[in-house]
Amino acid sequence: MRWIFGALFFLTFSCSKGPEEEFRQRGAKITNEMAQMLSQVQSHEQLQALVPRLKKKFNSLADLLLELRSCKEKGSESWFLNESTEESEALFAELARLYEIPGCREIIEGAQGEAITKLYPT
Predict the structure, then answer these.
(1) Cα–Cα nearest to 114, from 60, 39, 69
(2) Mean pLDDT score of the chain, rounded to an integer?
(3) Is the per-residue pLDDT at 45 higher than 50?
(4) Of 40, 74, 81, 88, which has the fewest CB atoms closer than 10 Å, so is most exposed?
(5) What is the pLDDT of residue 31?
(6) Among the listed residues 26, 44, 34, 45, the one whose alpha carbon sits nearest the alpha carbon of residue 5
(7) DSSP assignment of 64-88, as one string?
(8) Is 104 exposed, middle or buried (0-12, 13-18, 19+ CB in 10 A)?
(9) Where do the structural domains in the chain lie, given as residue ranges?
(10) Position 13 confidence tier, pLDDT thresholds 50, 70, 90
């Protein structure tokens, strides 16, 4: 879960004024879709059924973060804007809620595995 929080704040980074808004919109869309999907989950079994879709969302988020990382490496000056969004707050709340359901933490962390490997290759 720590990874997703870092990723959500990382989404407020930018390359320049134009791409900044595009990255924010794309990140907000992915984050909102994940929060809506997770808000419907009430059990370990329901979450398990969503794993393929959840993996796709985590991978989409990782791909976006890799694009942002690439912008930073190209010498962007304006990189960090410390702000939270409504979407990130909603996703945080859903993840926190699901972590309280037995077995859900492991499912979420497993669904993040491929995305984490993309971001932090060994």
Answers:
(1) 60
(2) 84
(3) yes
(4) 74
(5) 94
(6) 34
(7) HHHHHHHHHHTT-S--------HHH
(8) buried
(9) 2-119
(10) very low
